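Batch manifest, entry 17 of 40.
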Amino acid sequence: MTKLLIILSVFAFSTISSHAQSKIKIEKVFLDKTDTTKNCYTIIYPSKLPWKGYLFLIPGFGETAENVLQQTDLPNKIAKNGILTIIPTFQDGVLSFGVDSLSQQTIKRILKDITSKHKLTDLKFYVGGFSIGGSCAIKYAENPTIKPTAVFAIDPPLDFERFYNSAKRDIRLSKENEANPENIYMIERLEKETGGNPTTNLATYYKLSPYSFSDTTQNAIKKLTNMPLRIYTEPDFDWWLKERNADFTNMNASECSAMINELNRLGNEKAKLITTQNKGFRKPDNNRHPHSWSIVDNDELIV
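Output type: C-alpha cells
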C-alpha cells in the first residue's frame, strides 16, 4: 500500500470518526491494488505497545468498514485495551454472503496477510460480527485456520433452511407487489448459493448453515463444543409485528437460542445467549431497530 493511499484512508476515516477515534491510527489495506471496492481490510491500531490480541470484526450485509465504525465504538474501545481490530471487505464486496466458500477463503487470505505482516501468531485471536457477519464468524470458527480464543455474533441468521422458508412465507402473506424486497433477494441468493431450495437440496443448506435445527447429526456445532461463544439478540416481538409485520418465525432469535441450547447440552458451558431489551438503535439518527450493533454492551464484552 502506498503512502498516499494510507494518508487518504486515514483522512477518510477521520472525517466520519469521533474526536476520540481520530487519535487512533486507521489504515486500509488492499490485497488487489487495482480494485479498491473489495478484497481489502481496515486496521484500527492500538495506541500503545505491546499488543494484547487482535479481533477480526465482520460487517453485516451491505456494510462497509466506515459503516461499522459509525455504528459501534467497539474497535475504539478495545484499541485502548491493546487489541488490534481488522474489519474485512471480502472478495465479492459488501454484498458478501459470509458463510459461502468464497467469503471463508477470503478470511483465511486476509488473516494470512495480516498475521505475517504484523507477527500476530502468538497473540489472542477473537472473531465476531453483526448479522450475516456474525454468521460468518461462527462459520469460520467451525473450520478455522487459526483457532479463535473466543467468538461472538450479534443477532446472526444461522439456519438458512429456516431463513428460506420464513422468507417464502412472508412473501406469501404479503399483499400483491408489497413483498419485502430483501426476502425476494435472499431467496434468489440462497437458491444461487445452494443450487436449489431446502426441499431439493437440504444437504447443501446444512453445509452452508452454521447451525441447522433439523440436522439431527449436529455435525456443524459439534466443532464448537469447547469454544467460548456469545450470541446477542434482542427479540422485540412487538416492534417486529408493528414495524415489519414479522413474527418469531421470521426472527434470528429462534435459532440463536436453539443453537446455544444444543451446545450447552453437548457440554459447552462457555456458550452463552445474551438477550437484551430496548438496546437496539441505529446511528446517526438513533432510529429504533432491535437488529443493531448497539445491543452489545461493549464494556462488558471487553471484560
